[in-house]
Amino acid sequence: MANNDIAERGDRWEAQLRKGCLEMAILASLWGDRLYGLEILRTLAERAQLDVAEGTVYPILSRLKAEGLLSSQWVEAEAGHPRKYYSLTSAGRRRAQEMAEAWHTFSRNLSALVQFPNGGKNK
Prior knowledge:
Layout: H1 3-29, E1 35-36, H2 37-48, H3 54-66, E2 70-75, E3 83-88, H4 90-113
């Protein structure tokens, strides 16, 4: 295997980790209020440092809506075009809570394992 292949594979793990958490992050972003797509993207970027493309988020929003976890509503804007606002359904709130509990348990357990001496640095 070429060194470039190893480097590419090594760099993908972080992207895969972020991708795996994206559904939970989207649901969490909607916990407090309804948001339209670009507001969700901004929330993910600002609060979780998840820079996600529109082409990634909108299919997830559609799937979550089809699963009954989100509802949506078109709202006329004072200036510009109407915006599609998303909000959590009661099933979406339950799913978000379940995912958050699983995440906290998982991250606590993994953190207990990942305790490297000297912060993981070689001496």
